[in-house]
Amino acid sequence: MSTDRRPLCGLVIGVKRYELATLDDAGDLLEVVEATEHALGGSVVDPPHMAGHDSEGNRRWTREVAAVALRREIARSRGISLVVPLWPWERAGEAPFPSISRVQAATPETLAATRRRIDLRPFGLFVEGHTRRESDAAPVAIDPGTDLAEYELLDWRDGRGEPATVDGSVLDNLGGKAHRWLRPRPIDDRTEVVVVPELIRRVGKAGGIIEAEIVSPDADTSGVRAVYDQGDAAGFVARHASAIGPRSFSRRYGVPLDTAKSLSSGRKQPSKATVQRVLRAMRVETSETPSCPADGRPVLGTGKIYCSPTCRAAARKQRQRDGGGQTTRVEAAS
Q: Residue 18: beta bridge partners?
């Protein structure tokens, strides 16, 4: 880091994405003093030609991304467009290094999903390629622990556990990831988060991967963990029905009017199905919230199978590849 007392200039790209730098007397970049790596470094394997960290512990290749971001803004302020033909870790005549993550099977869901394709132990490390199309299943392979310069030679497996050919035509590359990281994103302007005490569920420390090994990788381990307080979701739903009135409650959540009147008056407690229906409509995730069959994320909202239109389309394409193009009415509406 330079020792002269030049003023710091800052560049904010988005949430947790900023750079601090000093400029020389001509207004050009002198030194990158600090740069965040959120969603960039650490999430993917370093390129072989620029692996490792500098003397201050920063990833060498992400510092180059920060320098490009700063030079681009300096050029833009002068009415010039900065073109980056090759990133510093790329070589002319070589295919760009792909975007690959190192992942640890530290949750029951990750372990169960990965074991269907490769032989993996609990807490084992594997690599996952980032495909160009989000709808394509990410190929996985056992992590060899090397710099992945010869990543094509790994025993890659596709979403069905079959051998997969992995190259630059299938995987996204670090250059593309860097360009997208530099693209400003809209900031979430939510200023308030509502915490409902009745919906707080207090449980013991997370040890899901161990619990899953005790029971089964595909089993629900919620009953194995210590639960100190289940919360009062039923009471919350009943009080909510009373607060907004039975007719509004019935229309909003699709609950029969007689049931809504009984809940509002306090004559009966809501059934488990009613509680789940209301909480899903409110987009509240609970231990009963179903998971998306495509990516395992929670499915919020009523009458849905998939968490997003992207997952629904990906599942449809996968069925077509497998030879079955049937779509149920419920699935089409999800």
A: 12
